[in-house]
Design a protein that fits this description.
Elements: H1 3-29, H2 47-62, E1 67-71, H3 73-76, H4 83-89, E2 95-99, H5 105-113, E3 124-128, H6 137-154, E4 159-163, H7 171-175, E5 181-182, H8 186-198, E6 207-210, E7 217-218, E8 221-223, H9 235-252
């Protein structure tokens, strides 16, 4: 073989080897597709959280569940700040509170997968979740949608009322007690966009959507008189919530 031909073969082989190696390297180093944590069921490690989960399971085993509320601390606090309002509006309807303080969509998904709605037949499920997630709006919306799909699969005869995530004040405003109202901020905007996306799920047959956020606002700002920390309602705030939701609740519960 001539020196020129040998050199040509050597150059071709080096080119092929180089292309192959670089191709493998690029493939290995290509960014992995990010997982949406909002749709990945996960339990929390707090002792109280698992204890509350066990308490819910015991309550569900007793039956006689007319409606359920699914959510985070805003729902959880019906049992404290909103108790008098709850006793007036929802206790007579045999409602059960499935709100867990600090929960994100993924935590609710875990709870649903681990028996919290097993063996019950409520007329209505009220869902509000997502304010604790720090995902982009579309991912939060996916998490809420996954919860609704779980409820539809496990409670096929139950109507679902999805509430828009409540407006919330900024971290800066929340820390300053002298500030009595708080306007739009990044978290509020993200939650509002997630809610807008979720609203498209409503078929007004089994899935309904309701936005009552304006009830907590004045001139477009969250009022501390309803939410002392610009996030969680006080007793007056829970009264506002109940009154704003009541006409829809009556309709969906088939009450005269």
């Amino acid at each position: 073989m001539s020196r020129k031909l040998c050199a040509a073969f050597t150059l071709a082989a080096a080119t092929i080897l180089s292309s192959t190696c670089f191709g493998q390297t690029n493939s290995a180093n290509s960014p992995a597709k990010e997982i949406n944590t909002a749709v990945m069921p996960v339990a929390r490690t707090n002792a109280w959280w698992m204890q509350r989960h066990e308490q819910v399971l015991k309550r569900m085993a007793q039956g006689d569940v007319g409606m359920i509320f699914v959510g985070d601390s805003i729902t959880h606090y019906w049992e404290s700040r909103g108790k008098t309002v709850w006793n007036r509006y929802y206790a007579p309807r045999h409602a059960v509170n499935l709100g867990f303080s600090g929960d994100k969509t993924e935590n609710v998904l875990w709870r649903l997968e681990h028996g919290e709605v097993a063996g019950i037949h409520p007329k209505l499920a009220v869902v509000m979740i997502g304010t604790n997630n720090r995902n982009p709006a579309n991912e939060i919306a996916d998490g809420i949608q996954a919860i609704v799909e779980q409820l539809r699969a496990r409670l096929p005869e139950t109507k679902i009322l999805v509430l828009a995530i409540f407006p919330r004040g900024s971290y800066e405003d929340r820390k300053d007690p002298k500030i009595l109202e708080s306007g739009r901020n990044t978290l509020w905007n993200t939650d509002a966009e997630a809610s807008r996306i979720v609203s498209n799920m409503a078929d007004n047959k089994m899935i309904y959507y309701l936005d009552i956020g304006d009830a907590f606002l004045k001139n477009g700002k969250v009022q501390r008189k309803f939410m002392p920390d610009f996030l969680h309602p006080n007793t007056q705030g829970y009264q506002v919530w109940a009154e704003a939701m009541e006409p829809t609740i009556k309709e969906l519960m088939d009450e005269k």
